[in-house]
Amino acid sequence: MNGVDAARQGASVAADRIGPAARQTREVTADRLLAARAWSAPQLERAAKYVDDELGPRVSALLADTAQRVEPPERRRGRVRRVMFTGLAVAAIVGLAGAVMTRRANTEPFDESTTEPEPVAGSDSNTGSSTGGGASASS
Residue 131: helix, strand or coil by DSSP? Predict the structure, then answer.
């Protein structure tokens, strides 16, 4: 156990010697870090303003120009649309003609000489048949 005790004692002596130097190094490092932050904050502000005012619009314009160059040309859809609208017009004309023909058929005067309406079964109507002048047979 003598070796372990000697190691502990040596570490304690080293800590006593290095302790003040470590504290001083920590203080100097903190001061220099604050100085670096104080210097870099305005630099970052300037860089942000440059990106917003000058670089951003340039990059945006460059990207927009590149997008226009990369985009494939539009396919011509004129023929397909023309065929579609022609078919729609033909269908509308056929529908209109059918509606006109149906309306004319419904509005033609009824010709009684061609068809005679049949009496409704079970009705008590005076048709002038041989039942005796409209008297009912059940009396």
Answer: coil
Q: Rounded to whole angstroms, what are the CA distances from 58 to 17, 52, 69?
A: 59, 10, 17
Tell me the pTM. Answer: 0.36
User: 52 — phi, psi (to 5°)?
Assistant: -65, -45
Q: Report how far residue 117's alpha carbon sits from residue 129's, in angstroms, rounded to the nearest whole number.
A: 16
d(CA 63, CA 70): 10
Phi-psi region of 133 (alpha: psi -120 to 50; beta: other; left: phi over 0): left
Residue numbers of the chain with a pLDDT score lower than 70: 1, 76-77, 108-120, 122-139
pLDDT in tens, 57-72: 999 999 999 999 888 8
CB 99 within 8 A of CB 91: no
- Find all residues with CB under 8 Å of 131, minimum gap 6, and list them: 137
Residues 122 and 136 sit within 8 Å (Cβ to Cβ): no
> What are the structure tokens assigned to 15, written together?
């800590």
